[in-house]
Amino acid sequence: MRHPNGERGKNELRLRASDPPPTRVGEDTGVTSEASDRIVTVPNAISLARLVIFAPLFVILLLPLHSPLGALIAALVLGATDWVDGYIARRFHQVSELGRKLDAIADRVSQIVIVVTMVIGGYLPWWLVLVILVPDLVFGVVVFVLSRDRAIPVRWVGRVRTALLMVGMPLILLVAAVAPDNAVLRDVALGVVLIGAALHVVADALYTWTLLRGTAMLQRDAHPAERTPER
Question: 173-179 — which CB contacts under 8 Å span 24+ positions?
Fold first, then answer.
């Protein structure tokens, strides 16, 4: 004959075993926090620094100072901080509506500043400015008219586009700094940028089309575990 207390103890053990493990403060659980209305956060400060410090520094280093190596370092910092601010926001629960918009603005402004500066410096073909700016202009107008108060969910093509551009353009600067006479390396670096530029057109067209159809908020393929926009 089983003792009722013994049976109850076993049931309690089963329940405890099935309970999820406790979560430590600041532990990354893979779930993105809900956006808050906070303004003063570390990620927001990083995004702002990308706009007012590192982007102008890139221009100064490449044009007046003619230092592709210095500009390369500034571009790498821009690319790194683009990842850092989003990581900090998610891990330490500092996701904010302002941060999402500020991060997107910093991304676009940084890309435009880098492209325009490199075109002026003779590192990129002039028509690349049109390839970057025209889709952004069309997309920006559609966002302003249809979705000015909402962040657009990020798509994988947008992330790949950004990665290729942020790798290809520093690669061009690296070649200019260490092997300026190597045509093969220069063409390889330019090819990476051109693929990124092509995906840039595809990504902006995709975002614009889904906004016009009213399905943009349903397209959330940025990450299987993320069901909200970047920041």
Answer: 173/62, 173/68, 173/69, 173/71, 173/72, 173/75, 173/118, 173/123, 174/68, 174/72, 176/68, 176/123, 177/68, 177/69, 177/72, 178/69
